[in-house]
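Consider the tokenized backbone below.
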């Protein structure tokens, strides 16, 4: 029989022999064994199969974080379908676009959203809607309970689609990054080795599971190592500090480290059993990097990745591979080629800044139903243009210095100004909007909206934010709004956002003296 490249098979093969051992421990005191994972994913996979979904069917999921939500992801892989995680902060209009574009055959949502989600599903021609809540209730689990607890994983090749992650475009139109079983497995295997996962490692999982960091990097890492997880439905700094003595690995976005540093209980004794702290999804301020070193004696490992590629680079884990340098994202991962090029597409000399491009088995195949956009984002020799700007130093460490696509990363979440600008420009009295990212001590960056009113119109900044609130996910909302006479422009008439960033740079961060 041909080998099965289904990602689930590789993850399951790494489960410990003792299937009765605890695999996941929740913050509410529940425990799940490895056998529970095996049997529950089998039941859900059998349920999915009973729905007679088409080959390659998408399963769209917008639910709160729970172990059952993670098991639904694994069961979707197991059954051979395509998982489509959606941020819980997305509002109805945003969800309607994703559902309309991806055309899933099954939507799973929280019970409280079932009413409006049914309307969205109906409009998109989606045949099935099930519910799943974070208290182990919902029609999904009810329907899965009587299903057989054995299931042969669907036969899949490495190139078959495993997941679609939507990442907003700079034009405001979201793009679905298509990731294969091979993309995700290759990345997980490389990180298992490079981050030196050890027998007996225990992961504190305090990240959301609707994006790369929590769903792929953290979850795959623990499963592929057969490691127990301490599962937190939401990040709570005090609770994390209390559980650090029971763990060895923690992964977080910079905002989480800032909040952990505010906890008086965080000291060297609390982290005495910890082996590795990983940070990503947004730039880690050098002050946070140094404060963490001084407080805990540990050096945070910062890495770099994105929805289209999973992880690209990482600071070293093992001392023999080099030091962890603050302000950098380390070296290209084994098997991954990263280059920095100029406007002419040629690699720039060491120390010079240019566009970051990547090639490797982790890189996605393209954007869902956007062949032209896919062609635009890949070079003739097969490198993906990340849209980030960076430079290599003489020792081979990569530093990301900016984002050519105007992206704002706030609390680890991607925020695209064009989407917010489009929404604001539709409001009464608004002539034009520019949204820029400025430094923030907690979130890393936040958006600031700068608005020009129509002639004779009076636009209230607070009123603009209030009007945007029901239309955008909370993490996308600008933290401040200003109404100005005009926006700075260059000779070609293009808004000079760099000048706006400078003008408002000290809004939330006290200027140094």
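A designed sequence for it:
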């Amino acid at each position: 029989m041909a080998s099965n490249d289904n990602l689930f098979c590789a993850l399951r093969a790494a489960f410990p022999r003792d299937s009765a051992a605890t695999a996941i421990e929740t913050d509410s005191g529940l425990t799940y064994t490895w056998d529970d994972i095996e049997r529950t994913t089998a039941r859900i996979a059998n349920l999915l199969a009973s729905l007679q979904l088409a080959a390659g069917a998408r399963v769209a999921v917008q639910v709160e974080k729970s172990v059952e939500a993670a098991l639904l992801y694994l069961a979707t892989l197991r059954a051979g379908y395509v998982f489509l995680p959606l941020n819980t902060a997305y509002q109805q209009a945003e969800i309607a676009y994703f559902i309309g574009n991806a055309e899933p055959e099954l939507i799973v949502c929280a019970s409280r959203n079932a009413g409006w989600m049914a309307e969205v599903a109906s409009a998109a021609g989606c045949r099935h809607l099930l519910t799943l809540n974070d208290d182990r209730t919902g029609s999904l689990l009810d329907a899965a309970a009587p299903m057989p607890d054995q299931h042969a994983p669907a036969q899949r090749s490495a190139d078959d689609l495993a997941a679609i992650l939507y990442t907003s475009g700079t034009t405001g139109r979201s793009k679905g990054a298509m990731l294969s079983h091979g993309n995700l497995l290759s990345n997980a295997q490389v990180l298992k080795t490079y981050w030196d996962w050890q027998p007996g490692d225990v992961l504190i999982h305090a990240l959301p599971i609707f994006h790369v960091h929590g769903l792929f990097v953290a979850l795959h890492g623990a499963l592929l190592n057969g490691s127990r997880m301490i599962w937190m439905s939401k990040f709570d700094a005090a609770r994390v500090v209390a559980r650090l003595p029971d763990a060895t690995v923690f992964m977080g976005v910079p905002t989480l480290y800032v909040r952990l540093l505010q906890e008086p209980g965080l000291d060297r004794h609390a982290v005495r059993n910890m082996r590795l702290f990983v940070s990503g999804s947004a730039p880690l301020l050098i002050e946070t990097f140094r404060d963490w070193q001084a407080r805990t004696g540990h050096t945070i490992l910062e890495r770099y990745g994105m929805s289209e590629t999973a992880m690209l680079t990482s600071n070293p884990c093992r001392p023999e591979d080099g030091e962890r340098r603050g302000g950098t994202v380390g070296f290209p991962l084994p098997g991954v080629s990263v280059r920095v090029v100029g406007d002419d597409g040629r690699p720039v000399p060491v120390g010079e800044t240019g566009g970051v491009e990547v090639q490797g088995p982790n890189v996605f195949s393209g954007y869902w139903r956007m062949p032209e956009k896919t062609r635009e984002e890949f070079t003739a020799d097969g490198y993906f243009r990340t849209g980030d700007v960076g430079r290599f130093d003489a020792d081979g460490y990569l530093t990301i210095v900016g984002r050519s696509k105007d992206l704002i990363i706030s609390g680890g979440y991607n925020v695209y100004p064009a989407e917010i600008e489009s929404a604001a420009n539709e409001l009464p009295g608004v002539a034009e909007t520019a949204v820029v990212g400025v430094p923030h001590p907690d979130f890393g960056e936040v958006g600031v909206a700068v608005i020009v009113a129509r002639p004779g119109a009076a636009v209230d900044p607070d009123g603009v934010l209030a009007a945007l609130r029901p239309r955008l996910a909370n993490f996308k909302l600008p933290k401040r709004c200003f109404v100005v006479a005009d926006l700075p422009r260059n000779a070609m008439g293009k808004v000079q956002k760099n000048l706006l960033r400078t003008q408002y740079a000290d809004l939330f961060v006290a200027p140094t003296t």
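DSSP finds 15 helices and 25 strands in the chain.
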